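Researcher: Let's continue the batch. This sequence belongs to Phosphatase, and it's 295 residues. Same format as the previous ones, please.
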Amino acid sequence: MKIAAIDIGSNAARLQISTVLHNDNSVSFKRVEYVRFPLRLGHDVFNYGSLTPASEERTTKLMQAYKLLMELHEVEGYMACATSAMRESDNGHDVAKRIEATTGIKIQIIDGRKEAELINNVVVQALDDRQYLHIDVGGGSTELNFYRNREKINSKSFKIGSVRLLEGKESKGAWRKIEDWVEDNVDTSQEIIAVGTGGNISKLFNLASKISESETTRDEIERIRNHISGFSQEDRINKLRLNADRADVIVPAADIYISVMKWAGASRIIVPDLGLKDGIIQLVYNQLCKRKHSH
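Model: Same format as before. Here are the structure tokens for Phosphatase:
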């Protein structure tokens, strides 16, 4: 059985199609198709407050392409979620309705809390009983979750993200709000390990020297950040081989991860290869199981 997740973010939209694998009593998901396309909806929304007709047209075309891929893979269930950019756009819900009318793809615009919860459901599987601060930086928002003994103690969504910073549109006092939240909610008397999710931290992690296959240090992330920032946009694309839509946001994103880690006193970061799309896959699977049981 194959299921799919569509994640429409402020920077890019992703389609992941996974096969459901059953092994004795456990269920796992194997990625069989992954497509990422840089729509940059955040550029419109953070600058003009709404999505432009050009962006709507490109999003519609992309959903048509994703729909065809899902049909070819004979996907049994899917869910399409839109986050920060569509959420804050004046015409986000209207655009989503028109896209559904044209393509048949129903886009659910989810709030920061739901977004964090979906990511948490998969991230928590990568933790043990120590203290963790999970940092998820998107194009438009940053979600922080504090864990102890695999239990979420506290979480908050902030209106600061890589595309927002790039456009100079982060909400006033956003940095200060994060620092205050970390101070009030994170117990820094014991060791805290950061957990990073999001496309930018995955890229930074790929370029970094690692302690283990899923862990590196804050100093190393900072070293990579400073290395990249020494290159022009053009050289980041040509010499460092970064995608154009990654090259300009990776430094602002790195600044968020590094700052949060400093405030929390975290010197190490774990980067599991997980994100919103994996949380959506999990949810789609659970819903399909419920449906099958109710029949």
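Researcher: Any comment?
Model: The first helix runs from residue 41 to 48.
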